[in-house]
Design a protein that fits this description.
Elements (H helix, E strand, L loop, with lengths): L1 E5 L4 H12 L3 E6 L3 H4 L7 H6 L4 E4 L5 H8 L4 E4 L6 H4 L3 H19 L8 E7 L8 E3 L2 E3 L6 H5 L15 E2 L13 H19 L4 E6 L1 E3 L12 H10 L4 E3 L6 E2 L1 E3 H13 L6 E5 L5 E2 H12 L5 E3 L16 H7 L7 H12 L9 H10 L5
Helix pairs in contact: 1-10, 4-6, 6-8, 9-11
Length: about 375
Amino acid sequence: MRILITGGAGFIGSNLVSRLFLEGHTIRVLDKLCPQIHGDNPSLSPLLQHVNGKCEFIHGDVCCLDTVRSALAGCNAVVHLAAETGTGQSMYEVTKYCQTNVQGTGVLLEAMTEYKNAIRKVVVASSRAVYGEGRYFLEDKYHYPRARNEGDLSRGIFEPRCFETGRVMQAVATHEDSLIQPNSIYGLTKYTQEHMTLLNCNALNIPVVALRFQNVYGPGQSLSNPYTGILSIFSTRILHGHGVDIYEDGNESRDFIYIDDVVDSIVLALNNEEVTGEVFGVGTGTATSVLEVAEELVSLYGIDVPIKVTGSYRVGDIRHNFADTSKGERVLGFKAKTSFEAGIVKFVDWVKGQPLQDDRYGESLDILKKRGLFK
């Protein structure tokens, strides 16, 4: 296949390029090389260097129609990864997130109408953030709680509670038919991006698959971006000898999915001709607390820094979310191969071989505080 990957010089994209290149595909990458990911001198970006020689690279913005038209020419498959990512940042850089994630997707879909007879598959990257808090269980029925009450959060009550009874609910795996109710601008734009792509491709009879990724991590993740990827953020702080701040009570949890598994899911979606118009959650199905992540990183680096459970919280954050993997296993044939215990060791081993990056965590926190988004 000749495959266009938007955002193909990013973390997921660069790993996908390597995999598809080894499989003999012809790859074209469209990426604007955002400084937040690639630094002030993108030509030195390790992610960009990782894709050099494996693809045709176009330095351009997915929001530019002429650029996207040129990038699509001759391609028969598209993997749409281009997006702004980060829950906290999305709550104050609303325009940027809407422009890239929503307008950029609109531009791509508009351009694809000119190539609808040539394109045989589209895969769009979505996010577990579309669910918000996800699915919970209490009193013999499932619940889908809305954003947590700020009064509860300020009193240290972090677990979602039943609106009617006030009782704490139990988090359970979130499946693809769960209620969609994002808690952040990021989550809302990702759902819009996903829904636009499914709707338009189905109308054009272009086979399409949406993948809702849980928390992706692994070698190659930006170590300088303070807005996304807690393993990277924590690692940079630990290596500087700085303490690690844990929000809430540390028991908030996420489903951490290793980068190689994410790439596997995309390759399966590209190659499986029997799945179209489908949505799949991509995760391990296992929840790991943020406090566990911090403690394991400190142990693996062997650097004694304080881990402080602060009780603070960010507006838009969720408490728990982990994937129900049954549909992905049954229909797509996807099952994560890398446990978090094995993946975090691989990640730490990679980080140890990288140049130490500036710790910009404090800077990002100050911005959130000034805008009233960090309590």
